[in-house]
């Protein structure tokens, strides 16, 4: 059915517009003044709510199949819809088997598409699936590309799950000619182990208290990121592959990244909401909900990351949504029968033993807008970092990423003036725990549309799951 959404604040690549967005089926048919619409077209008037393009998360850990008890497609995509995301791109680790060959990719596709009740779709939003580049699987990479993955993910350090191995330089150099031939990006967790191993050995030898956030921060020094990024830039010069640095945390790397971009290396960089909102000075001891890797660093470091977003050194923001059962966070208490066996009380609050990951799909947009509003950053700028740039990274720009004629009618109705307090009922992912709990945030997602259909509306989900996969064929999404 042809229908329209009207807002005084439609966020387009050209800026904010007072406009009606005409939707024909799944796609945007026109963007025009409300007075130019035919009188018989149904119009939903959003008033002063901003209409943003659906957000795209290029860094989501869904964990299904194999670890669905941590998070699955059903719960992750509900949280995504509630957070204004209409596309998520799932990482190839934490699931079992890991997505490092075509056979494992097929199993993940089956889980996503038919994992609902009686074999029905369980995904509330659209999705794509990164492949994995690990030690020894270089011959699997081009087949994965032909099968439709939008790119590959690697770790230069132990990723926390035994089945997805880190990749050393020798194996990376075996993989890179294959990756370069595909033309797809390689997304890399950029930390090297030697600096971290040295720091941990010193901390343990001196009896450091692992309940203190300062101890955890010292255990993942900036140097580990700097050394890894320097290695990757060297290899990028040699093999000319598309390099993407995931979840940059250290501002000390910004000068070399700026220089690499001036040099013309095919490089993109992301950071995450938690690095842009939280800071080490304000993280209480034992607050393991704030543990991630690389770690959240200082307030001064945070401000430099914001400056790097504004000047283009950092290209995009991704959530790195990485959930787990609460007992894996070494929390002292959690009233949920599905939380798993409680942790030993002697381990409560220990950063060295807690899982490193922050669940954030439902809160990312208001967390970011709270900070943008404080810094005078506009909604069009935020949409570039959370929609257009992630779409470009994943090769999806012809379909999604902006409000333009011909693209999928994916939208978020966002109230930039509202404030709300984070409570468990607004999170929607499997385990409602969050470092933002009880924080007052600015900006609220009111509704989300996927390909022209409203899938989230004021904390309800009015339509059945209808998400589908974006797979790349010949470098073009379908």
The percent range for helix content is 25-40%
**Structural Rg:** 21 Å
On the 0 to 100 scale, the average pLDDT is 94
Number of strands: 19
Structure description:
There is one protein chain. This protein has 478 residues and is α/β, with parallel strands linked by helices. 29% of the residues lie in helices and 21% in strands. Strands 1, 2, 3, 4, 5, 15, 16 and 17 form an eight-stranded mixed β-sheet that branches. A six-stranded parallel β-sheet has the order 9-10-11-12-13-14. A hairpin with a 2-residue loop joins strand 2 (15-24) and strand 3. Helix 3 (138-147) runs parallel beside helix 4 (169-182). It is globular. It starts with a strand and ends with a strand. Mean pLDDT is 94; it is low at 335-339.
List the helices and strands and how they pair.
Blueprint: E1 2-12, E2 15-24, E3 27-32, E4 43-45, E5 50-53, E6 55-60, H1 73-82, E7 85-90, H2 102-114, E8 126-129, E9 131-132, H3 138-147, E10 152-155, H4 169-182, E11 186-189, H5 193-205, H6 213-219, H7 222-239, E12 243-245, H8 254-263, E13 267-271, H9 273-277, H10 299-311, E14 316-317, H11 364-375, H12 379-393, E15 411-421, E16 440-450, E17 453-457, E18 472-473, E19 476-477
Parallel strand pairs: 1-4, 1-5, 6-7, 7-8, 9-10, 10-11, 11-12, 12-13, 13-14
Antiparallel strand pairs: 1-2, 2-3, 5-15, 15-16, 16-17, 18-19
Helix pairs in contact: 3-4
